[in-house]
Amino acid sequence: MIEVKIYKDTPIPGRFSQFWKKFRKHKGAVVGLVVLTLIILMAAFSPLLAPFDPTEQFSDYLRYPPAWSNDGITRHLLGTDDLGRDLLSRVVYGSRLSLGLSALVVVIATVIGVALGALAGLARGGMEYFILRVMDVILAIPSLLLAIVIVAIIGPGLPNAIYAVAIVLIPHFVRIVRASIKEEMAKDYVVAAKLDGASPLRLFTHSIFPNILPPLIVQITLAFSTALVDIAALGFLGMGAQPPNPEWGTILSQSRAFIQLAPWTVTIPGLAILITVLSINLFGDGLRDALDPKEHP
Q1: What is the pTM assigned to this prediction?
Q2: Which end of the chain is less congested by CB atoms within 10 angstroms, N or C?
Q3: Residue 175 contacts residue 117 (beta carbons within 8 Å)
């Protein structure tokens, strides 16, 4: 017997296929993803890509310009700084340090922010009020200014800079998690779970948290660029990573006195920060639109 199909089967795309279909419509986001991937690969394989040790000094090549300049040499493709250190090696190694520190800051801020946001969203009365008011105070002060004040109080150094930047990022996670929880609490599936006797912890981990992941992922992406800029700014001010660490902000700080004699020592690490932050923001914008449930595929 021959089976005759009246209606044509239409395959239903998976969640990732739907996400990618919407994401790739944003050309800028795709470019940002490609550039960010290349920067992450550069950071991961920096020992293989860097031609020299970032702290090695070549006394015969002080402040040599990049290779494309008239006086440049191909041995030092991006030139050298005032101590004769290869700038390409320092920028490549600095990508590992800058991205690694930013990732660590975002992880700390995410864990603490999600915990406090969940507590504020599920709690009632004084606890919720106290958490929100503390977050309001932190948000009332510009993030970089607050980070500088915190580091000035607890002392300069890389660990203290990490704590300071993490503190200024926490309120953003608290706000978005609490708002998402309040929105989800009114939905039928949460009401059904509560009627089944689910504890607040189980309610959050098994029912609510999987449904608030999209806005949380977008916030993590945007927080990453903020952390990168703040860490670089603290390094530039001498409050973060200390020399001879090749952190991008520290490289800028050491080179600012030679901006007229050797402008490439400032321009190149500055461009590294600019390109990285721009790619993260482009990727984050596309991610936000692709994960928005109101957007049609």
Answers
A1: 0.86
A2: N
A3: yes
